[in-house]
Write a structure and sequence with these properties.
The protein has about 210 residues and is of the alpha+beta class. Helices cover about 25% and strands about 35% of the residues.
């Protein structure tokens, strides 16, 4: 199972992307799951989901963590026992984690698919994306979706809306930096966002500004 990319974002933060190529049997060897996660894995119906779940555990192992070093809170947000910040993602045959020593982080991997155009109104004002070709529109909407998902993971609670409470500043596809904001209750926090493209996928990651 090859480590697809490692990105050193800064001295405190690193991102790891993994391409899952092994069989389910191979992925189950070499790692030890907690009892709760053994139950979670058994309940998963999709083999792709199972592979991604195990792939993430292999990523944990590479960066020096065991499965029981990760704690999930009541909202399902992962936390590390050593108090570093972590976020997790998976999409089809790719999975990824981002770990930071000192900043809240979020990550999301999405496959670029034209059907995102049909659901865009659910997470962003679609009239902001006029005059883009279909390919550019698909890409930009995928980035916006990933950016909002990353911020949603950072916030870590269920009550916020991608459409109403998470805002991504307009950007060009050539931009190196994007900015987004969570505006909910007394929270009005700005985040720095970047994205990378590989194969048919886009990985977006966010850090508290």
């Amino acid at each position: 199972m090859p480590l697809y990319k490692t990105i050193k974002i800064n001295t405190e933060t690193t991102l790891f992307i993994w391409e899952v190529t092994e069989s389910l049997e191979d992925l189950q060897s070499g790692i030890q799951l907690t009892e709760n996660n053994k139950i979670r894995l058994k309940k998963m119906k999709s083999e792709l989901h199972k592979k991604a779940f195990l792939g993430v555990r292999h990523l944990f192992k590479i960066v020096g963590y065991n499965d029981d070093d990760i704690i999930y809170d009541e909202f399902g947000k992962p936390h590390l026992k050593d108090r570093k910040y972590i976020s997790i993602t998976h999409s089809f045959n790719f999975c990824g984690i981002i770990i930071s020593k000192n900043k809240s982080v979020g990550i999301d991997i999405e496959k670029q698919r034209e059907k995102i155009i049909n659901i865009a109104h659910k997470f962003t004002p679609i009239n902001e994306y006029k005059n883009l070709s279909k390919n550019d529109l698909t890409k930009k909407l995928t980035i916006v979706w990933g950016a909002k998902e990353s911020l949603y993971k950072i916030y870590g609670k269920k009550e916020i809306s991608l459409l109403k409470h998470i805002h991504i500043n307009n950007f060009k596809l050539s931009d190196n930096n994007i900015f987004g904001r969570i505006s909910f209750n007394n929270d009005n926090t700005l985040y720095s966002i970047k994205f990378i493209e590989f194969s048919d996928f886009i990985c977006v990651y966010a850090l508290k500004n």
